[in-house]
Each structure stands twice: as structure tokens, then as C-alpha cells.
Amino acid sequence: MLNIGVKCLAICLAMGVSYAAMADEWVPDKPIKLIVPYPAGGTSDMIARLIAPDLGAALGQPIVVENKTGGGGVSGTEAIIGADANGYTIGIVASSFASSVHLVPNLPFDPINDAQPLTMVTRVGVALIANPDFEAKTIGDLLAMAKAEPGTLAYGSAGNGLSGHFAGEAMKLSAGIDLIHVPYRGGAPGLNDVIAGQIPMMFNVISSVLTSVQAGKVRPLAVTSATRSAVMPDVPTLAEAGILDAEIYEWYGLIAPAGLPSEATARLHAELVKVLQKPEFSDRLADLGIEVVANAPEEFGAFIASEVDRFGALIKSANITLE
Amino acid sequence: MMDSFSNLFNGLSVALQVQNILYCFGGALIGTLIGVLPGLGPVATIAILLPVTFYLPPVAALVMLAGIYYGAQYGGSTTAILVNLPGESSSIVTCLDGYQMARSGRAGPALGIAALSSLYAGVITVFVMTIFATGLSEMAMHFGAAEYFSLMVLGLVAAVIMAQGSVISALAMVFLGLLLSLIGTDVSSGVQRMTFGMFDLSDGIDFVPLAMGLFAVAEIIKNLAEPEDRIVLKGKIGRLLPNWDDVRRSAPAATRGTILGSFLGLLPGGGPTLGSFAAYTLEKRLSKTPEKFGTGMVEGVAGPEAANNSSAQTSFIPLLTLGIPSNPTMAMMAGAMLIHGIQPGPDVMTKNPDIFWGLIASMLLGNVMLVIINLPLIGVWVSLLKIPYRLFYPAILVFCCIGAYSVNSNPFDIVVMIVFGFVGYAFMKWKAEPAPLILAFILGPLIEEYFRRAMLLSQGNPTTFISRPISFSLLLVSAALIGFTLLSFFRRMQRKEASA
């Protein structure tokens, strides 16, 4: 009799515990789609594919990475945001998620209200690099040169409306100088032109220029991060050179459609943070100068909102347009 | 120079990896298949397979696609000799003497000479490529925006001049290609052009569905519209090995074909078709008995077959070292490289030496494989010629749709492919060759980008294009080509008027 009573109690307790677990914890019961709005082989695709296996193992369901490209990332982002907010569709977005609202006419989504941020995955500063033979050897030299001959020096970037372009325009505004912006189709051809001396300098993300800097093929003049980069500790920040308000990062983050139940947000966030903080993930990126962030959904959301405002102001005053 | 050969040796170690051998074999096999079957050519086949290569490592992908290209040169001659139908446009001249040889009971030696001349040319050309590639690539390293602009202009001018058919329709195709390439976001200013507010168009029309539509879908429509007409030569093929007299006459012809072909392949606008025609003309001119050409002269098979294979291979050089595709197949290869994030140009050799040298070295293997595929297995290919075409088409079409969708997971691309399928069929009916269109589509955005970058860097001074010596010479050559074409055009007009 007692035996049965104990068993009953045990069953009741077990049920209670599992009930509690169900209330707290969202458990997916089918594969989760991770949409990448950019082509395979790019940074966002690489990050998504690095995270997917471990995140899938932690959640007990496979994560299917799907590249949905087009419209400079707009089509894929639209697909993330337009999906059902049930946790089975998440996606990766980049810096342009915040800036595109000011650049793309009739953008089919609102980065603040239509998305449930999960976490910022990584961020990396932008470096100003120059050909080693270029007369300006430091950021100070460059500012002096640019003031002496306004509108004659050119800088390259990986493309219009990307982090390198913003960094250049922010520096121009803050330092009161005039430079010619030469956009390239991606960072690599621009970097080649700097190495070959076809263009004196360029703004490009630290991770993309690191090997050329280490090989001495280009000279780093400054970085746009708030603090010096661990992989280039000798290179001053723009702020140190007196150029304020030019803190620019290229970042990647994970979002879900707005209206995601809070249990799903919490679970996805918790598992993501665990995956991102694994040393094999963070160390590998740290070697490239990329910082793993893994912040809270609220912090990421606040960051996106502040970036939308900041870029709005920058785009307006620097008169950057895609139209 | 020694460096190049040690690089080639390293390339061989890449090409000899089991996976790459398999893909090389697969490419050679598919190439032979489509070469044998008239209708689908290498351009259409590569277009269809482009989306598949997306899931392969870049070396394997390029090795396979290249195998298809030169494999088609082998397969094409089989059909030319046995059916008197060119399997490929590059084997048109092989029909002339090859089919006559077959009719006089020497089908076997004709096939043997065609395959062995191709092998001979293929192997020698690998070494020619090794020597040229390094030099060209080093030269291109010093190119700035102005030089690239002028080089691309030359490439485009050559595309018009070398095109088959009328200059007028080639020009029209070039402009249409340029217009289509303008759709999407402008790199220099970020402006949306001709997108009509559609987000699907803001990255422009994708190369893969465009090429699949123009080449593959259009080909299928054309083949379905025309009645099948193939008479496979009856009777035995006989022994494949040529006799001593054949070898004695073919060896010098194949050597000349190789030299001529590899040179013509390097030119923008060149390629196997041009190579084979030029080699045939050369052999006829050098022969002591030119009147016998067309009656089964073995030189008329050996020379062109060597030339089409060697120019197929050397046409990779301008793409891999300078970044300009010299013919539509190379435009497809450029597309395949771009899918993998590799920008064709001088960087390929320094940044992706495995790809560069692995690809070149794989051609050695591929040519040997092709001789084995083509000679002992000739019976298989002959029996394939008896399968009615309509059985292939539904499968190919479904495959095209899946392929077009899979690159971007965007159904819009299927629509693009189908629309351009009909457009391509219309072009065929108007006898307008779509090759210049596809070259302009690839080169157009580059020309614009380099032009505007050169102007930005020179602070708006257009003399930058003529004050830099390399750029100036390239523009001079383009101008000379245009002048020469116009001159011969007016002469022809005058002659016509005079005779009328």
C-alpha cells in the first residue's frame, strides 16, 4: 500500500517537474530553418554554418541553413521577418539591417518593430590601411595632408552603404576633411588595389586585411573600434587621433520574427550564448580580430535601435544615397 | 620558368586526389556524351550543371566543367565522322574529310586519328599554358582600373568581330547584353537601375538562369521544333589504329594544328571553332594536293582536331590570368568561379594556386581519360546516337528548373530562365548568335566599374586612358580591329554594288 503511495507521489512529482520544465522551456519538435540572406561563402554564411551543428545538437533538432539571396539581403531578411513567429524560423542579419532603413526606398520591413532580436553574434572594427609607400605614415600625417589638399585623396571601400564607406564618411565629417570615395565590388579587389598602389588607402574590416597587414603589404593607420584591436595593438583608434563619433563596427546578429513567444526567445538565446562562448568558436574568430558578443536580446535590440538613429544622422549629414 | 613547372607538378598532386580524378572523369564522360549528341553543346551543358557545382569544392567543380568543354571536342568528332553531322560547331570541318574516310571504309582510323591528334594537342597545350599563364598573370598584377577598362573594351570588340553571322546582329546582341547587365544596383552610386521597384531585380538578373534560358532551354525548344534527322553510318567501324602512312601524314598536321589552335585560343573572341577552321585552311594551303581535301584526307582530320582541342584549353588562359572570358563557355566558367566567390583574374594564381594549377594539370589526366572513353568504348556512343531525343528533353527541363531555383532559393530565377528560353529561341529564328550577348553581360558591369573607378582616381580626367601606355596600346588595338572590320564591311558593300 505504502509502496503504491510512494509510486503515486513519485509519478506526481515527476509529472509536476516535467510540467514545470515545459512551462519554462521551449522545446522544438521539428527542424529549425536558419535563413542567410547572403550568398554561400560569405561571412554571414560562414557564421551560420559554424553555429548550426552545435545549436542543433543543443536544441535536439537539426538546424537547416538556407541561403535566400537577392536584393542586397532585403529578400532574405523579408523572408525571416515574414515567417511565422514560432521559433522554427530564425535568421542572420548584418550591419546593413540597421542602415538599410535609411538607404533602401520602400524597405519592406522595419528593423526595430518587425524583429525579435536574439543576440549579436560577432562584431569587428574597420581598419584604415594604406599602401606602405604612401606619404602619410600615420593618421596624423593623413589628416594634415587631407587638409592641405582637400578633395584630391581617394579612399576605397568594399561598396556603397557598407561599413568601410560609413567609416570613411564619418571620419570626413568629424575631422572636417574632404576625400574621394571609390567603392569596389567587395573588399578583396579594393585591398589588391591598395597593395598595388592603384589607390592610396581604404577602409576595410580588420579580419579581411589582417594577413596583408601582418605580411607588411599594407600599413594600418587607424581602427574604428572603441578600443584598440587585440590583433593590431600598435594601431591607434580614430578616437585617439581626435576623430570622435566615428566608431563603426561590422556586426552580425541573429533575429527571429517579432511576436516570438518569450519562452522560445529565452531558450534560443540561452543555447546560442552557450554555443558562441565555446572556445573553439570564439578563439578561432578572435585570431582574426573578430569579437564574439553574445549579448542579451534586450541589449541587442537597444543597439539596433541606436544604430538606426546614428546611421540616420550620418547618412543625412554625409549625404549618402543609394537612390 | 622552372617555377611554373614545379607549380604544374603541385597542380598534378591536386588533380590526382581521388575526388578530383572522379570529377574529371565525370566531366570527360558528360563532355563526350553531349559532344556525340548533336543539339546540346558544352555551353548549354555547363549552364545546366552550374547550380550543381555550387555544392562541390571549387577545384572539383572547375575540373569537371573544363572536362565537359574539352571532352565535347572529342565527342563532337565521333558524330562528325560517323553521321556527317557536327556534334559541335568546332567539329564542322571534321565532317569534310572524316566522313569521307568513313565512307571509304576507314571509319576506324579516322576516329583513331581524331582522338590521338586531340590527345597529342591536349598534352602539349598544357605545357604551353604553363609558360604563358605565369607571364600574363604577372603582367596583369600591374594593371590599374584604366588598364582593365581598356582590356575589357578589347575583349568586347573582339567578341563582336569574331562572332559568327552578321556584324549588325552581333552589335545588337552586345547592346542587349549591356542593357541587361545594367539592371540592378549600381556599384559606384548604389542607384537602383531598371528594377521597376522589384526587390527581385535589385541584385540584377542572375547569370545562371539567364545562361540556362538562352542556351539550354532555347536549344531544347529548337530541337523539338525541328524533325530529327540522323542516319548513323552502317557497317563496321573496323580497327581503330591508324596505319603508318596515316601517322606519318598526321603528325606534322597535328603539330601545326596545335600551335595554331593554342595561339587562337588565347585571343579574345577565339576558341575551338575558330581554331579548327583556321587549321583546316592551313592544311589545305600547305598541301601539295589541295584538290584532294574533302575526299578523305587524313591531314584534314588531324589538323583541325588538334587545333580545336588546344584552343579549347588555351582559352582558359585569358580568363584565369586577366579575368576576361573569351567565349561563352569561358563566360560560364567565370560564372562558376563567381559562385564560389573566386573573382577570375590575376589573383587566382596567387590566392588559389590549387585551383589554378590543379585545373591545368587535370587537363593532362582528362585527355588521357578521353582517349580511353572514346576509342575502346566507341560502340556505346554509336548506340547512344540511336536513342530518340524526345526522351531526353523532359528530364533536362526538370533538371534546369531545379538548378535555376537552387542557386538563390528564389522562384523568380525559374521565371527568368523560362523567359530567356523563349527569347533565345527567337534569337535562333532570327539567326542572331547569343554569344556576344552573354559576353557583354559579363563584361558590361566590369567595363563600367573600371571606367568609373579610373575616372574617380584621375579626378575626372579622361586622358588617364591614353596617358598610360598599356591602356593606350589596348585601346589602339581595339580601334584597329574596329577600323579593319569597317573597312572590309564597306569593301564588301562596294563589291556587291559593283556586281549588281
Automatic annotation (TrEMBL), chain A:
UniProt cross-references to InterPro entries, sorted A to Z: BUG, Bug_dom1
CDD domains assigned: PBP2_Bug27
Keyword Signal: yes
Keywords attached to this entry: Receptor, Signal
UniProt keyword Disulfide bond present: no
N-terminal signal peptide: 1-23
Gene3D superfamilies: Bordetella uptake gene, domain 1, Periplasmic binding protein-like II
Pfam family, one: TctC
Protein family according to the UniProt entry: Belongs to the UPF0065 (bug) family.
Name recorded for this polypeptide: Tripartite-type tricarboxylate transporter, receptor component TctC
UniProt source species: Devosia limi DSM 17137
Automatic annotation (TrEMBL), chain B:
Signal peptide coordinates: none
Domain DUF112: from-to ranges: 21-439
Transmembrane segments annotated in the record for this chain: 21-40, 46-70, 110-133, 139-161, 168-187, 207-225, 319-343, 355-375, 387-405, 411-428, 471-490
Family matches, as Pfam families: TctA
InterPro entries tied to this protein: DUF112_TM
Record's keyword terms, sorted: Membrane, Transmembrane, Transmembrane helix
Top-rank lineage group of the source organism: Bacteria
PANTHER family found in the cross-reference section: TRICARBOXYLIC TRANSPORT PROTEIN
Protein name: TctA family transporter
Record organism: Devosia limi DSM 17137
Lineage: Bacteria, Pseudomonadati, Pseudomonadota, Alphaproteobacteria, Hyphomicrobiales
